[in-house]
From TrEMBL:
It is an enzyme of class 2 (transferase). Pathway: Cell wall biogenesis; peptidoglycan biosynthesis. InterPro entries: LD-transpeptidase, LD_TPept_cat_dom, Transpep_catalytic_dom. Keywords: Cell shape, Cell wall biogenesis/degradation, Peptidoglycan synthesis, Transferase. It comes from Amycolatopsis heterodermiae. GO terms for molecular function: transferase activity. This is L,D-transpeptidase. Its EC number is 2.-.-.-. The active site is at H247 (proton donor/acceptor), C263 (nucleophile). Residues 168-290 form the L,D-TPase catalytic domain. The keyword Transmembrane helix does not apply. It holds the Pfam family YkuD.
Amino acid sequence: MSEMSRPAPNRWRVLALWLAGIALVGTAGVLLAPSPKAPDVARGGAEPVELGVEIHAPVVAARAVPNLARLPEASTLGTVANAPQDATAEEIPDGQLVHPTEPVPVFDQPGGAAIAALPTTQLGSDTWVPVIAEEPGWVQVLLPSRPNGSTGWLSNQDNTLDSRSTTDRIVIDRAAFRLTLYRDHQQIGTWKVGVGTPAAPTPAGRTFVLASMTDAKQKFSPVIFPLGIHSATFSTYGSGPGTTGIHGWPSTDVFGRRSSDGCIRVPADALATFTNPLDPVPIGTPVLIR
């Protein structure tokens, strides 16, 4: 039989079968949507009709943790050996912060194993940690514990987390010896700073302002801002855990140089901006160290 003499397909039969297929799928309770594609020029350029329903991912429940005291503390004093590592070290967090209103377990993944306990305070300040990812019922946050780059998942299903956001960002460029403060995507101030020496470098990565504190035992800075990151050189420093911080210095010859044991030394006007009583840099502010 030649091509010209073949009978034309029964279009009504094809349409009936297609409609029956949709009815069967709908009866099963699931409607699959075809992938979007370019307009079909042969049929007049009509856009395809997308069939489907919105599907919500289920919320994974948190495992019960009968005794938080048995878990390592996710603090600047602690080490969380099994913490997932931060995989996006060059992208500063968006400013969403959470605070535990009571000590809460930290999990290795949504619905996974508890690996630590996050306390309500750190070095005299409320614990506020940046959110770096979300899943239904869960947030992933940066942790202030060793090793650097530690993260963990917190359940937000039981009303134990407060939340807020900040538009403040701090970017520290070690090669340029420069700290820049941004607010509402605007540069508030930029300062020449001192950073760690080659023997005790300032650690790189994304972290956050962990606390604001004073220390009567020292005279180099009226206020110190510990960060959620630690020296890779010193396991302890000055009887502390080797926490890296932002602080002042009594002389100006340290700025624009590798002059510290890992901390970021800043001028007095930078500290004044950070502590401005009308609009201080909030605890939890994301920090990117390059």
